Amino acid sequence: MHLNTQGNNAAQKHKWMAAGKSFGCLLVLWLTTISCSSAVATPPTQGQTQSIKAAEPLLQAKITDLAGEKIEYAALRVANPRATLVFENGLMLDLQTWEAVAQGLNHCCNLLFYNRPGVGHSESEQEVLSPALSAARLQQLLQQQKLTPPYVLIGHSLGGQYAQVFTKRYPEQVDALLLVDALPLGLVKPATDFPWYTRTGLWLFAPQATRQEIANINDMGRYLLQEPQPFNKPMIRLVTQTATPQPKSAGLVKNLLNGVIYAEDFGVWALDPAAAEQRMNDIYPQAEVRTLVANHRVQEQMPGVVVDAIFRLLEQRRQAMAANAAQPSAQLQKPAVQ
């Protein structure tokens, strides 16, 4: 029997190259809680989402200088805005991922999208990124663009933590909060405690700005968990799940060769993901939680669901403002006590 060793070696080399590429890309993406497996989520029904298409894109990005940083952003303004909506992207994701959502908002509000340094054309010389600095950067951008508070913040994945940091630092400026499959607080270990192969993979394949953001995840979680302030304003959490139960991990190498990656293979969880999700319920007991059968990038797969959640928050915000406005008049109408 003749064995085609050259062909076998080439096939094996191809598999390892594909595995390495998967490791490099998915390692970083997984840290934003993408479920990387062979399972395919059940497509949403017609009632769960809406088709949002447009002939021309709305989000036309520009570059601005912000205290020595180059920040790429897109701002949309309307004549009589119901609110100012501020969007925070997930790790490594560009502001264009919100295009379908922007199309579905029907010119109801002022909108601000931006890329954090390391994404798109945004650049920074900052070597240390703290929660306070990230919130201050967004505050500067809003002021520069003359978009006045109060704001409705929408954060996807890791951007959900940035949105919460801004809300904690400037609570009087935020009227509502939407977390789109946000990374739970305290879920990720300090980067120095990652296994050696995870740290090596990040060093080999991830850009410096991405490594910096990943290293900052634990600090943001600790900042938000330290003396958490109750958020008693309208809030919705969109949480995704897969359509079918996931099989157990077969180990990092076998999974990579099979084109599958599981969270437990990277050893960066600080606690069980289910416990981290329950912690979010405990921190925000007033939040409306909607569970979706969808992939992680909800704003692209199911933009209508995100748009619906935004409009619900706007209505809740309107009702809250009306109730607050009615309170003084109610006090004036009370008869004097003799």
What do you see in this structure?
The protein is α/β, with parallel strands linked by helices and 338 residues long. It has a domain at 52-190 and 208-247 and 273-316: Alpha/Beta hydrolase fold, catalytic domain (Rossmann fold). 41% of the residues lie in helices and 14% in strands. It has an 8-stranded mixed beta sheet with strand order 1-2-4-3-5-6-7-8, sandwiched between helices. A hairpin with a 2-residue loop joins strand 1 and strand 2. Helix 4 (158-169) crosses helix 6 (208-225). The model is unreliable at 1-26 and 32-52 (pLDDT under 50).
Helix and strand layout, with pairings?
Blueprint: H1 5-30, E1 62-66, E2 69-76, E3 84-88, H2 99-104, E4 110-114, H3 131-144, E5 151-156, H4 158-169, E6 174-180, H5 196-205, H6 208-225, E7 235-241, H7 252-257, H8 273-283, E8 288-293, H9 298-301, H10 303-333
Parallel strand pairs: 3-4, 3-5, 5-6, 6-7, 7-8
Antiparallel strand pairs: 1-2, 2-4
Helix pairs in contact: 1-5, 3-4, 4-6
Features:
disordered N terminus, 338 residues, single chain, alpha/beta
Q: Going across the biggest sheet, name each strand in turn.
A: 1-2-4-3-5-6-7-8
The name CATH uses for the topology of one domain is: Rossmann fold
Shape from CA axes? globular
Helix-strand sequence = HEEEHEHEHEHHEHHEHH
What would you say the CATH architecture of one domain is?
A: 3-Layer(aba) Sandwich
Output the structural class.
alpha/beta
Q: Largest beta sheet, briefly?
A: 8 strands, mixed
**Could you state the oligomeric state of the chains shown?**
single chain
Instruction: Please tally the β strands and state the result.
Output: 8
Low-confidence stretches: 1-26, 32-52
CATH class of one domain: Alpha Beta
Distance, first to last CA: 110 Å
The pLDDT mean sits at 82
Helical stretch count? 10
Strand content: 5-15%
CATH-wise, what's the superfamily of one domain?
Answer: Alpha/Beta hydrolase fold, catalytic domain
Helix content: 40-55%
Global Rg: 22 Å
